[in-house]
Amino acid sequence: MTLRQLEYLIHGDILPGSIDKYRISERLVLESVFGEGYRDSTWGEQVGHVKAYVGVEFDGTATHFFQAGKYLTLFLHLYTLQAGQPYVVFRPSGIHIDDFTKLGERSYGYPRHEPIESIGEPLPNHIRRISKLKALFQQVESDFDSINDSPLGLAMQFFYDALMANHRRRLDLAVVHFVMAAEALVILREESIRQYVSKRISVLFSETLEEYESTYKDMKELYDVRSGIVHGGGKKASPMNVGLLYQYLRKAIFERLAFRHLTKQELVERLDQISEKWDLKSELNELRQFDWQKI
After folding, report:
1. Distance between CA atoms of 10 and 234, rounded to whole angstroms?
2. N or C: which end of the chain has fewer CB atoms below 10 A?
3. Closest CA to 28 of 159, 138, 177
4. What confidence tens digit (pLDDT) does each residue in 209-238 have?
């Protein structure tokens, strides 16, 4: 099987500034590169530039582009969850390599960007930040294909879309996309969506009964804001609405990643049971595959 290196140019502060190059996994290496001071309406400010080198098996067809794209997308979606920042990815170019240990040794991509060489040692807080992102990715990396093709992957995409809308000062679209992410996580069919999405999302990440009751109340009000935006005649979205939804959906998606071995049906049934009997929450917590807050 031939191996390929696909190079993606990314606008976004993915790699901390004092780190030149960093290996995330066997198949992913990041490198800080020089940009021309990229500035547009997406951010309204200068952002970093990163080359992502993705290793993929090549079978002579175009499927390796899709596999590499899914692999990188999962990593970048984790970045948005961790950092609360969006990104922009440009189409890749590729070359053959001998093995994945050679990833990032040479760059053949277009447009050309010069590597950045940081002065001195990487800052400790920068190492901690990228190390945590790496550790999170290691928890889910093996399931990148199934996650991206699932409602969980759709929820992560909607979360990203909400962040992009917020950075473009479209609070209304941010609210709509955040609520769409919530529905992708916990709604199975046509049902009383306002009630069930609010209840299940709140159960999913709340640690105490008091937190659940407070979040459940907030989520119902936030869903009403979404309905007013979509159907007209309601309240306008506020920065506080967006901030709460960001906070709640970030926690909910991380929790869903920790419970990804459960089917959506299985998880929803457990969440509904817990909403009726809170003592069952401890049983669900024991099923987590990892504790994202302790990584």
Report:
1. 38
2. N
3. 138
4. 999 999 999 999 999 999 999 988 777 899
| CA nearest to 156, candidates 59, 79, 256, 253 | 253
**How far is 226 from 174, CA to CA, in rounded Å?**
10
Q: End of a domain among 143, 169, 188?
A: 143
Helix or strand holding residue 93 (H, E): strand 88-97
pLDDT at res. 41: 43
> Are both 177 and 98 inside the same structural domain?
no
Cβ pair 36, 87 in contact under 8 A: no
DSSP 3-state assignment of 276?
helix
pLDDT of res. 40: 46
- Report the pLDDT averaged over residues 120-138: 92
pLDDT (tens digit, 9 = 90+) per residue, 60-106? 777 888 999 999 999 999 999 999 988 988 878 888 888 899 888 88
**Contacts of 112 by beta carbon, 8 Å cutoff, 6+ apart:** none
Residue 111 — very low, low, confident or very high, per pLDDT cuts 50/70/90? low
What secondary structure does DSSP assign to 198-222, as a single string?
HHHHHHHH-SSHHHHHHHHHHHHHH
Map tokens 């992708």 to a residue.
Answer: 184
Same domain, 160 and 288: yes
Strands 28-32 and 21-25: antiparallel
Q: Both 136 and 170 in a single domain?
A: no
Reduced to 3 states (helix: H, G, I; strand: E, B; else coil), residue 95 is: strand
Residue 168 is encoded by which pair of tokens? 């473009």
Extract the tokens encoding 156: 């992560």
Same domain for 253 and 126, yes or no, is no
Of 37, 19, 38, 39, nearest to 29 (Cα)? 19
Domain of 278?
Answer: 150-294
137: three-class secondary structure by DSSP:
helix
